[in-house]
Amino acid sequence: MDLNEAIEARREDLIALTQDLIRMPTLNPPGRGYREICEYLRDRLAGSGFDVTLVRAEGALGDSDRYPRWNVIARREGARAGECVHFNSHTDVVEVGHGWTVDPFGGELRDGRIYGRGACDMKGGLATSIIAAEAFIATYPDFAGAIEISGTADEESGGFGGVAYLAERGWFDPARVQHVIIPEPLHKDRVCLGHRGVWWAEVETWGRIAHGSMPFLGDCAIRHMGAVVAEMEASLFPALALKRTAMPVIPEGAKQSTLNINSIHGGAPVPEEGYTGLPAPCVADRASMIIDRRFLMEEDIAQVKAEMRDVLDRVAARRDGFDYTLSDMFEVQPSMTDRAAPVVTAVSDAIRKVLGNEPDYVVSPGTYDQKHIDRIGRLKNCIAYGPGVLDLAHQPDEWIGVQDMLDSAKVMGQALKTLLGCADAK
After folding, report:
1. Helices H / strands E in the chain, number of each
2. 248 vs 24, 172, 240, 254, 346, CA distance in Å?
3. CA nearest 186: which of 109, 107, 246, 122?
4. Where is the Peptidase M20 dimerisation domain (predicted)?
5. Do 255 and 305 fall into the same domain?
6. What DSSP state is assigned to residue 398?
7. Domain of residue 294, CATH code
8. Judging by beta carbons within 10 Å of its beta carbon (0-12, 13-18, 19+), is residue 343 exposed, middle or buried?
9. For 38, 177, 387, 424, which has the most beta carbons within 10 A of its beta carbon?
10. Are residues 352 and 211 in the same domain?
């Protein structure tokens, strides 16, 4: 039985594995079920001959005794020395949201699709990498080098309790890992070279509290924030729309710089559940806004920040009593792997062989854990490649196609043959 046949023979196992993973509601925030899914993966991979380690990201952002950040790393050594290929998948999923017509944690199989939160992003990719690795090991038991598979926490909220924590502790040191494939849902014929940069910040405007019947005695921070948003609409958003990148970012709209207003809060807090009275009549003395700025390889992070401060200073110059603070939350530089890198060429050749068409080289509009492997681990030979349609991520009725997973598993298997010295074998 050749490698592709070994993968096809695992079709039902692939379906069941994906369904099992979906049925674990690893919601982030707050970070539920991480230990459960790591133990499941530990048992599965130990049964396939992997040495498995569970690592809690103690002290990392988000880690707590109530919601500990658990990660699993499994390694299978080959018959002789060689390089290591690491498949990294995050185990967390975002909130369910509204509009579902199926059970979001049911893992329903219908018409060749498996439905559920995380099916596409990215439990289907995790299952695919496991099947690819197990089929490869069974077909080429004398392979050189090593294969690693990890399931990591918190990618959806920055990855600081997952890949960042592991990278800081040497798990992605180029001396022990040489190639990384992250099975994010970029489609089976695409090689994702990297991602845009991101800067999150909080803008706060300040006022003075007063009785709501006499607002002239106070100073409304919400009105000040409204002036900030108006200035962003008038000057910043049009300027960002003119910035374009040579990076092959998808979809087309993400080839420009973008900014999302993530949230705005101001005034009286939301009443506790069960409270049925009216709010107190007060002028808001504080308002806050979280901004999510995505920037391009051609932009400098200092200039990105200066553009927002310029907006605030323009408002201040014409608005009496305007006072603000601008605070960094986190930032990530853009990342893009060279198309000549070994993992890129191996996966590209595998796409040609398995699918019969030229790969498409893309860059993700949003960041993923490549940022930590690149910037903290100093490992440049990293890409995202996996099954699934990116537009389905975080949507209701999220799904992954079974045939797409099988095809991607074959691509991963062929890439393993090249990277671990089995390219000329059967």
Report:
1. 11, 16
2. 35, 26, 18, 9, 20
3. 122
4. 194-318
5. yes
6. -
7. 3.30.70.360
8. buried
9. 387
10. no
Q: Would residue 425 count as lying in a domain?
A: no
- Which residue, 194, 183, 178, is CA-closest to 379? 178
Q: How far is CA 246 from the centre of its chain?
A: 22
Tokens 């692939």 locate to: 14
In whole angstroms, give the CA distance from residue 381 to residue 374.
8
For the chain, the first-to-last Cα distance in angstroms comes to 9
pLDDT at 421: 84
Residue 90: beta bridge partners?
152
- For residues 221 and 180, membership in a common domain is answered with no
Sequence-ordered list of residues with C-beta below 8 angstroms from that of 367, at least 6 positions apart, any chain:
195, 196, 197, 198, 332, 335
**Does one domain contain both 387 and 354?**
yes
C-alpha 197/C-alpha 338 separation (Å) is 17
Say whether pTM exceeds 0.85: yes
The kind and range of the H/E element at 128 are helix 124-139
Residue 318 to residue 244: CA distance in whole angstroms: 31
pLDDT, residue 426, reads 42
Q: Is the peptide bond before 25 cis (omega within 30 degrees of 0)?
A: no
What pLDDT, on a 0 to 100 scale, did the predictor assign at position 147? 98
Do 340 and 356 belong together in one domain? yes
Please state the rounded mean pLDDT for residues 92-115.
98
How many whole angstroms separate alpha carbon 160 and alpha carbon 166? 9
What residue numbers bound the domain in which 167 lies?
Answer: 3-195+334-419
Tell me which residue has tokens 């198309």. Answer: 339
User: CA-CA distances (angstroms) from residue 415 to 147, 183, 366?
Assistant: 12, 13, 25
Q: How far apart are CA 384 and CA 187, in angstroms?
A: 10
What does each C-alpha distance from 15 to 215, 246, 342, 401 come to in angstroms? 61, 39, 31, 10
Residues 188, 126 within the same domain: yes
Spell out the alpha helix ranges (H) of 79-123.
none
Q: What is the pLDDT of residues 374-418, one digit of tens each?
A: 999 999 999 999 999 988 999 999 999 999 999 999 999 999 999
Average pLDDT, the chain: 96
